[in-house]
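Action item from last meeting closed. Structure (350 res):
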């Protein structure tokens, strides 16, 4: 069944995947008080090691990147040790795993990090996202501080440091989280980037910070172990603007000349279309970027296999069905019925 999902795929000379099914990054908010991965997380990832590649839940690069409770980090020695237990278990089961590197930008909340020193929420511009932290409604989002050039330099250095920590923790590579309305994405959309310096106003300026992060991470660990997730279609913590299109046209042209492991679309439902992109985010990126592309968002084995056959993308990331079915890959391989995901399943790490 679905033979094209089970053909191996070489990301490059360094990394080859056993199959084309990726486990999408899925925040589960179950790290311990010090944001260290737990034994339950070791078991959870090990159970899914037959994915072609696991992408870890988003993992913060430093304390002021935190916007949700108990999201793991990659900036302390204990966190590196905790992740090493996860990566060892995945490798023992024959799998591969990338760390997703995260800073939530204006979606951060000092509730989570004020004790670590600074309580500034950092973003490109002092424009708040409207709303409050999910399931913690008393925590409304604050007006962020527009980052200074010094802040930008330290953020870029901290992404590179977290990437080095990921390699030390045994990850096969990293996926930079440039999607879903978080810090990097906030630079790429006019809704959140009102800067008038060399980080704002024009496509070249608005892509400067995201590309600097990509380049710093690639320099640190190699472009063959560096991937990026992007959301050209604004759909989460962000309002779209037709001017965003030119920013992504420029960004994708720039990425084309870098040899990343892959580019991954950040979207919940790939059936969504965006006027300013002329269709889905995936179709838009496919026509502007020729290298390895990961599609995601509402796919079944049938529709994912058909999309790869139609050359809409190269690799299929699966999110919610992987929460519901730890044995997703085996079930699909043998044509067995899948359990249907429901939000109640988020309460337990199975
Ligand atoms: C997500 N998603 C997500 N995306 C991301 O880039 N980093 C993350 O940490 C998370 N966390 C997360 C948690 C939960 C509970 C859900 C449901 C989703 C988005 C995810 O990677 C994927 O894009 C969507 O779930 C769509 O794919 P599926 O679920 O339709 O296969």
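Sequence:
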């Amino acid at each position: 069944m679905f033979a094209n999902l089970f053909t191996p795929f070489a990301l490059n000379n360094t990394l080859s995947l056993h199959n084309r099914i990726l486990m999408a990054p899925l925040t589960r908010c179950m790290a311990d008080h010090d944001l260290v991965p737990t034994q339950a997380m070791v078991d959870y990832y090990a159970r899914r090691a037959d994915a072609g590649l696991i992408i870890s839940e988003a993992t913060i690069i430093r304390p002021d990147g935190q916007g949700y409770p108990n999201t793991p980090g990659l900036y302390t020695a204990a966190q590196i040790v905790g992740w090493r237990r996860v990566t060892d278990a995945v490798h023992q089961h024959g799998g591969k795993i990338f760390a997703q590197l995260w800073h939530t930008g204006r979606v951060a909340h000092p509730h989570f990090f004020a004790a670590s020193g600074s309580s500034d929420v950092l973003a490109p511009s002092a424009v708040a996202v409207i709303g409050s932290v999910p399931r913690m409604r008393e925590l409304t989002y604050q007006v962020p501080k527009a980052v200074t050039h010094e802040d930008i330099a330290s953020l870029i250095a901290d992404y590179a440091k977290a990437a080095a920590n990921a390699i030390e923790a045994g990850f096969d590579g990293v996926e930079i989280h440039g999607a879903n309305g978080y810090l990097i994405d906030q630079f790429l959309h006019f809704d959140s980037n009102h800067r008038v310096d060399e980080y704002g106003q024009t496509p070249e300026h608005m892509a400067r910070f995201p590309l600097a992060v990509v380049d710093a991470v690639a320099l640190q660990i190699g472009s063959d172990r560096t991937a990026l997730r992007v959301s050209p279609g604004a759909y989460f913590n962000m309002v779209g603007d037709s001017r965003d299109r030119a920013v992504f046209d420029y960004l994708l042209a720039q990425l084309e000349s870098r040899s990343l492991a892959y580019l991954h679309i950040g979207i919940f439902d790939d059936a969504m279309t965006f006027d300013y992109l002329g269709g889905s985010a995936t179709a838009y990126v496919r026509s502007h970027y020729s290298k390895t592309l990961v599609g995601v968002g509402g796919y079944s084995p049938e529709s994912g296999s058909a999309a790869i056959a139609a050359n809409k993308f190269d690799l299929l990331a699966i999110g919610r069905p992987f929460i519901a079915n730890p044995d997703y890959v085996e079930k699909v391989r043998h044509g067995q019925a899948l359990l249907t995901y429901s939000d109640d399943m988020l309460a337990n790490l199975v």
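Note appended to the action item: The CA atoms of residues 17 and 70 lie 30 Å apart.
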